[in-house]
């Protein structure tokens, strides 16, 4: 769906290490989003991007940073991973917003911080 | 701010039973409403949407009607199948939330259908 590839699909890392998750899309969608999914919380927005080099914070952005140097790639970095960041991370893209087009999701990255 | 409230799950049904998953919302503006479905091990995918009051979205036998007077968008299906077992998310996108129309999601409702 919308050619969204997340990598890696699974990762185990130790507390205190930096981690980068990658989202790659082939549909030339302008908007990209990073969410985390946790039991009891549903989906929570971490960061989003509305164009190359244009990003903004979501509701749970502490401890995360993002970069978007090309339309097709949106990177999420955990600067110093903590156990509370163990989660499933989803990238989503959107072609446009004005007519409320839907989001297209990748298949997620399961991150475990030990 | 905007919010979406869904009934808590899991909802457990036998095959061919009638399904209703309740969803209510609060929004500053006049939002568009969505249902997404997440199958095990996958990301969310759009199931249906409605963009104005009294619109009915439908797909794969699922339906939901945009009820502005009750601020609701309940998901229904007349006869569920085992393959419908998944997590269902209600969501809204509000033009009054700023230029980026950031979607707001409910917490999801797990549906388990037994043969």
Task: Tell me what the structure shows.
The complex is a heterodimer of chains A (114) and B (115). Chain A has strands spanning 4-7, 10-13, 19-25, 31-38, 42-51, 54-57, 64-70, 73-78, 87-94, 104-105, 109-113. Chain A is globular and about 40 Å long. By secondary structure, chain A is an all-beta fold. The termini of chain A are far apart. In chain A, 0% of the residues lie in helices and 57% in strands. In chain A, strands 2, 4, 5, 6, 9, 10 and 11 form a seven-stranded mixed beta sheet that branches. Chain A contains no helices and eleven strands. The model of chain B has no long low-confidence stretch (mean pLDDT 93). Chain B starts with a strand and ends with a strand. Chain B is mostly beta strands. Chain B has strands at 3-6, 11-14, 19-21, 23-26, 32-38, 44-50, 56-59, 62-65, 75-77, 86-93, 104-105, 109-114. Chain B contains no helices and twelve strands. In chain B, a hairpin with a 5-residue loop joins strand 5 and strand 6. Chains A and B meet through strand 5 and strand 10 of A and strand 5 and strand 6 of B.
Q: State the share of residues found in helices of chain B, binned by percent.
A: under 10%
The percent range for strand residues of chain A is over 45%
**Computed structural class of chain A:** mainly beta
**Series of secondary-structure elements of chain A, N-terminal to C-terminal:** EEEEEEEEEEE
Main sheet properties of chain B: 6 strands, mixed
Strand count of chain A:
11
What portion of residues of chain B belong to β-strands?
over 45%
What oligomeric state do these chains adopt? heterodimer
The span between the termini of chain B is 41 Å
Largest interface: A-B, 25 and 24 residues
Extended strand count of chain B: 12
Number of helices of chain A: 0
Rg over alpha carbons of chain A: 13 Å
Rounded average pLDDT of chain A: 93
Shape of chain A: globular
Spans of at least 5 consecutive residues with low confidence of chain B: none
Mean pLDDT of chain B: 93
């Amino acid at each position: 769906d919308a050619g969204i590839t997340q990598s890696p699909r699974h990762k185990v890392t130790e507390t205190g290490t930096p981690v980068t998750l990658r989202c790659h899309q082939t549909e030339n969608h302008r908007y990209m989003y990073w969410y985390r999914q946790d039991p009891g919380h549903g989906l929570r927005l971490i960061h989003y991007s509305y164009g190359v080099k244009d990003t903004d914070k979501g509701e749970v952005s502490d401890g995360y940073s993002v970069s978007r140097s090309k339309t097709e790639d949106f990177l999420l970095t955990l600067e110093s991973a903590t156990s509370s960041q163990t989660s499933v991370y989803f990238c989503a893209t959107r072609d446009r917003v004005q007519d409320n087009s839907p989001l297209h999701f990748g298949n997620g990255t399961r991150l475990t911080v030990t | 701010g905007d919010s979406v409230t869904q009934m808590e799950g899991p909802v457990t049904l036998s095959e061919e039973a009638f399904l209703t998953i309740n969803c209510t919302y609060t929004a500053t503006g006049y939002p568009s409403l969505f249902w997404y479905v997440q199958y095990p091990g996958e990301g969310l995918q759009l199931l249906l949407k409605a963009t104005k009051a009294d619109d009915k979205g439908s797909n794969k036998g699922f339906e939901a009607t945009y009820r502005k007077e009750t601020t609701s968008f309940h998901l229904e299906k007349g006869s569920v199948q085992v393959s419908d077992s998944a997590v269902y998310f209600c969501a809204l996108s509000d033009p009054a939330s700023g230029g980026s129309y950031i979607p707001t999601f409910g917490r999801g409702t797990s549906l388990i259908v037994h043969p």
